[in-house]
């Protein structure tokens, strides 16, 4: 293992830590669950900011994805990870994030325990070019029109489905 390799907490379905392993051991092995945070950033028009992932990313390169997303550092709680990732990816800091839900996302490459927050933002964005090729606010209709077309990451497609279900339940 390289001394600079990212270490991640392997967790069970409830988020309890069961071991610590290098990212390279976890990615590519969907039987190992690791924790990530997502932030859905909306503007005052209700549009959702999506990021187009850099082509050099190992997961979903070139796909449109959640506004902000990243691994939790060792011992880090999800809210602090959300704040850190917003700074690292978009160069922004927001005072208030609303916790929405958590869920398990799995595909043939990885399994994640995702903690999702929402926030409102209208200011300037300073995207990290190592992580993101571009950002754009999308209407929920535009997102819905592009589901299943290979434009959006599989993780984001599950994320937006969870979000829409939450919105429907809040209307009831």
Describe what is shown at a glance.
With 172 residues, the chain is an alpha+beta fold. Helix content is 24%, strand content 34%. It has a single domain, classed as Nucleoside Triphosphate Pyrophosphohydrolase (Alpha-Beta Complex).
Descriptive overview:
The protein is of the alpha+beta class and 172 residues long. It has one domain: Nucleoside Triphosphate Pyrophosphohydrolase. 24% of the residues lie in helices and 34% in strands. It is built from 4 helices and 9 strands; from the N terminus they run ββαββββαβββαα. The chain has helices at residues 23-26, 78-90, 140-146, 154-171, and strands at 7-11, 17-22, 33-42, 48-53, 64-65, 68-71, 98-106, 111-120, 132-138. Strands 1, 2, 3, 6, 7 and 8 form a 6-stranded mixed sheet that branches. The protein has a 3-stranded antiparallel sheet with strand order 5-4-9. Strand 1 and strand 2 (17-22) form a beta hairpin. It starts with 6 loop residues before the first strand and ends with a helix. The mean pLDDT is 94.
| Total individual domains | 1
**Discrete helix count:** 4
Q: Using the coordinates shown, work out and report the CATH topology.
A: Nucleoside Triphosphate Pyrophosphohydrolase
Oligomer: single chain
Any key phrases for this structure?
172 residues, alpha+beta, 6-stranded mixed beta sheet, 4 helices, 9 strands
């Amino acid at each position: 293992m390289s001394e600079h390799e990212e270490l991640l907490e392997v967790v069970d379905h409830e988020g309890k830590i069961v071991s610590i392993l290098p990212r390279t051991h976890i990615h590519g092995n969907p039987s190992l669950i690791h924790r990530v945070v997502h932030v859905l950033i909306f503007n005052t028009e209700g549009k959702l900011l999506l990021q187009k992932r850099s082509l050099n990313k190992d997961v979903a390169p070139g796909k449109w994805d959640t506004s902000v997303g990243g691994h939790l550092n060792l011992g880090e709680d999800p809210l602090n990870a959300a704040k850190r990732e917003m700074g690292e990816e978009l160069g922004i800091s927001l005072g208030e994030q609303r916790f929405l839900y958590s869920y398990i996302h799995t595909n043939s490459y990885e399994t994640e325990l995702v903690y999702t927050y929402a926030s409102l933002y209208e200011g300037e964005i300073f995207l990290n070019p190592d992580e993101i090729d571009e950002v754009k606010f999308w209407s929920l209709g535009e997102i819905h029109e592009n589901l299943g077309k290979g434009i959006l990451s599989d993780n984001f497609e599950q994320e937006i489905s969870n979000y829409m279900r939450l919105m429907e339940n809040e209307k009831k």
